[in-house]
């Protein structure tokens, strides 16, 4: 039990301090508008509803700026706010507005999200009046796969209107291959109770998409593999017959759901027939 307690402490450290207060879409939009106006006082900045602002230049030209992609970045980590404002201010140059560009196909990656996150973002898009949707695929009843462009300067979640240069049916393979190239070495540590997979601290949950990890035989448990992904940076593994392991995963999942700003779900999933489905009941 001592080793289990030590593991609980180590993993719990990933959740960090208590979450910063996260602003809702309207309050976030208002704060962004105020920050941009303060940074560029020669521009007239106004709100255009939730997650949308208008910027009027000195020559009278008006530019609409959608915050639909920016809000998930902020919501995942409020510390991103300053970087988001920096990006918006930089994007207001004439060249950036005239040539927004398209996503870099080599930097498109898959991100595991829960359905509550998906519905919140879709509702924000609907409120903004834009004829677009989140670019995503189904994963299981609790989780979805959304796609993002992870560049050196920022991450932005992609929309159905983005020119990704590949058919949707080929998108997941492209994104998984990109992530495999971008990620540092995947490591597994643990004991006879449960194990933890690590891969840099940002995409551990996305490792669920790496079929080779789960079907290759390197993870040794009795029976099918059971996992918990309570947060984007936490992936825990045990076996269905391991009572201590299941108890540990449930305890940690509940802990992360209450303390981690990157929380996903407290459900456990079993890998069977090439896919992850809900394990047991709450």
* Number of separate helices: 9
Strand order of the largest sheet: 8-9-11-10-12-13
Ranges with pLDDT <50 over ≥5 residues?
Answer: 14-19, 95-100
Order of helices and strands: HHEEEHHHEHEEEHEEHEEHEE
Kindly state the percentage of residues in helix: 25-40%
Label the overall shape: elongated
Distance between the termini: 24 Å
**Average pLDDT metric:** 84
Main sheet record: 6 strands, antiparallel
Task: Return the domain count.
Answer: 3
Q: Total strand count, please? A: 13
Radius of gyration: 21 Å
Strand-residue proportion: 15-25%
Class from secondary-structure proportions: alpha+beta
What report would you give on this structure?
The chain has 282 residues and is an alpha+beta fold. It has three domains: 25-98, no CATH class; 105-181, no CATH class; 184-273, no CATH class. Helices cover 34% and strands 23% of the residues. Strands 8-9-11-10-12-13 form a six-stranded antiparallel sheet, covered by helices on one side. Strands 4, 5, 6 and 7 form a four-stranded antiparallel sheet that branches. A hairpin with a 5-residue loop joins β2 (52-56) and β3 (62-66). α1 runs parallel beside α9 (243-259) and α2 packs across α4. The relative contact order is 0.13. Residues 14-19 and 95-100 have low confidence and may be disordered.
